[in-house]
């Protein structure tokens, strides 16, 4: 059940009730592709970092260690010792990113494993079966993520096929949830809106999938090469055609700036690898912009990454020490920066929720964006 508690313009503050707890939205999902956040971050750490939802990847877990093994171990929640919500993406984006290693047909996609080259087939039913074995809270429908730029005839054919795949996903998930040995009989399904940067195709697709009465709706195929202005234009056009009484998820986005802009346009759910990836390379987010701790000016800087932050790294360690750890190639450097970045993103979502509740989101957004620009002045 999804309940909007407060609106500030199109920005929504809501609660999403799931089999694994209530998700307060807007929310940033912390990406643990293979069942762990890269950077030596444990599930105990995630609780300390205010993580509400962990996101794992169907494609990667299917290849290693295998979804059937995870089912034998009691499902992904038990396997990774995490009792809060988990969203699994369908594998569609990974298949898209394989490029020449894949072949798309009506029945599904034939591709080669990036690990050992073995031939694999994945269609809507297979994706649902894998996600059912994982037992995630929310399963994503299998779709084709279209690369940009894209020709209109191809986009039209692809979106029509994605719609047919979604119907098959819904039917298969219903079947799987009835099985006696299913890990999570209350598994939820989100559909995905596609259509590249053609707003009319996007809108028609949004109308069509909205009729299917799914648990939530995602906007896919953005943040794949188009400009930020194009992404915001598509959100302006498409979000109003998705059900307001269901959560809206912008896949693979993004930067703090992207999130603020998308929340203003009515988006609830976000995910992105950037906080963890950037953290592993000494790039950290602060309320005064992004810093590169490898810069020489931080060699003797005894201040925390961000003096307004309460994360485990900022409470105890200096920029100088963390920079030293990177130079010494100590794993602790990555761990501290990933933890800081995740805490920063999750805390920002807390602030966003509070700002919407207090009917001051637009002022909050403007002040936050001004702060991010400060470091570049």
From TrEMBL:
Pfam families: TGT (PF01702). Its cofactor is Zn(2+). Substrate binds at residues 89-93, 143, 194, 221. The gene is tgt. Keywords: Glycosyltransferase, Metal-binding, Queuosine biosynthesis, Transferase, tRNA processing, Zinc. The keyword Signal does not apply. Zn(2+) binds at residues 309, 311, 314, 340. Residues 10-369 form the tRNA-guanine(15) transglycosylase-like domain. Binds 1 zinc ion per subunit. GO terms for biological process: tRNA queuosine(34) biosynthetic process. Belongs to the queuine tRNA-ribosyltransferase family. This is Queuine tRNA-ribosyltransferase. Pathway: tRNA modification; tRNA-queuosine biosynthesis. Homodimer. Within each dimer, one monomer is responsible for RNA recognition and catalysis, while the other monomer binds to the replacement base PreQ1. InterPro entries: ArchSynthase1/Queuine_TRR, TGT, TGT-like_sf, tRNA_ribo_trans-like. It catalyses: 7-aminomethyl-7-carbaguanine + guanosine(34) in tRNA = 7-aminomethyl-7-carbaguanosine(34) in tRNA + guanine. Catalyzes the base-exchange of a guanine (G) residue with the queuine precursor 7-aminomethyl-7-deazaguanine (PreQ1) at position 34 (anticodon wobble position) in tRNAs with GU(N) anticodons (tRNA-Asp, -Asn, -His and -Tyr). Catalysis occurs through a double-displacement mechanism. The nucleophile active site attacks the C1' of nucleotide 34 to detach the guanine base from the RNA, forming a covalent enzyme-RNA intermediate. The proton acceptor active site deprotonates the incoming PreQ1, allowing a nucleophilic attack on the C1' of the ribose to form the product. Residues 252-258, 276-280 are annotated as: RNA binding. Its EC number is 2.4.2.29. GO terms for molecular function: metal ion binding; tRNA-guanosine(34) queuine transglycosylase activity. GO terms for cellular component: cytosol. The active site is at residues 89, 271. It comes from the Bacteria.
